[in-house]
Amino acid sequence: MSSSLNNTGTPGQPSLQTGQVPTTRSPATCSQPPTTGYRIVKIAPGVHSVHSLAHGETFHPVIGPVAEAEALYVRQLRLIERLKQHTGDFVIWDVGLGAGANALTVVRATRAIQCSIRIISFDHTLEPLEFALQHTDTLGYLGGYEGQLQQFIAGRKVSFEEGGQRVDWELHLADFPTLLAQTAAQRIAKPHAIMFDAFSPAKNPAMWTQPLFSGLFRLLDPRRPCALPTYSRSTMLRVTLLLAGFFVGVGHATGEKEETTIAANTLDLLSEPLDRKWLQRARRSSSAEPMWEPAYRQAPLLAETWEKLQAHQQFS
Length: 316
Ligand SMILES: C[S@@+](CC[C@H](N)C(=O)[O-])C[C@H]1O[C@@H](n2cnc3c(N)ncnc32)[C@H](O)[C@@H]1O
Description:
By secondary structure, this protein is an alpha/beta fold. It has 2 domains: 3-58, no CATH class; 65-315, 3-Layer(aba) Sandwich (Rossmann fold), CATH 3.40.50.150. The chain has helices at residues 65-75, 79-85, 101-109, 127-133, 136-139, 146-155, 176-181, 210-219, 235-244, 276-284, 303-310, and strands spanning 3-4, 15-17, 38-44, 47-52, 57-58, 90-95, 115-123, 157-162, 165-173, 193-196, 227-230, 247-251, 260-264. The two termini are 33 Å apart.
């Protein structure tokens, strides 16, 4: 997960430590933001994460990569219970591979059980994972998987077994919105769960548009229950997911946020579906209309969007 970060280390914000990639920006000499590069960020004693200089965002800015992935995905999706009951491959889409923290946290959390996990990661760059691999001691969560990660980076896929756990992990290295719009996307194995972890809508609007989530929903198998937790609780995102066809509920707190969002293609996977009170709040919100284009802006609901929302099966 990501959010804007004050690079100067404002009280209450994480401080930055020098990484092995480009230099700290100096306001005196560099007025433009950098276009590439990552840094290590100290979140708390012993907890570090990766910061993207280009986006000015830290991947897991408050509680750190592992704690966030455990709360938002492993526990909320009840992965261990579900995997114990599951036969065959359990397919997880990892949207926004980044530095691999979500994927590796899932692998580590389930390695003691008999299961077969197929992780399908999506990102348009391997740079943050390569960077993280240069900082395994500091980041911690990659430790023990260095060999598998080298293989994954080199071949864009890796398979390994540990005890009763089998992991098949592959990467689609592409612009995600473009990939989803291609017919080839229909051939990607259908997910049982989606970890959706792009940068924030303000910095990364192309990953949060209405057409993107509608395309994502159309790719699901209606007979395969699938849940998609994500860190945002914004009204705009929730409206976007509802209009795309998902059922949408309140997501677990993560330690950073008291509330997140979980969407699913079946109501059974939601413990607290959004209700009509939420719908009325959305109607009054000044930031509820989905982004139809990849350009960030905030706007109240259009009349036709309000009509569609009211007609959603979840509120009938
Ligand atoms: C917050 S980081 C993900 C952190 C990651 N889940 C982890 O556990 O380390 C967001 C990721 O989304 C990727 N991303 C942003 N826009 C994208 C796009 N249009 N297509 C594919 N990936 C994109 C970025 O490259 C970045 O790695």
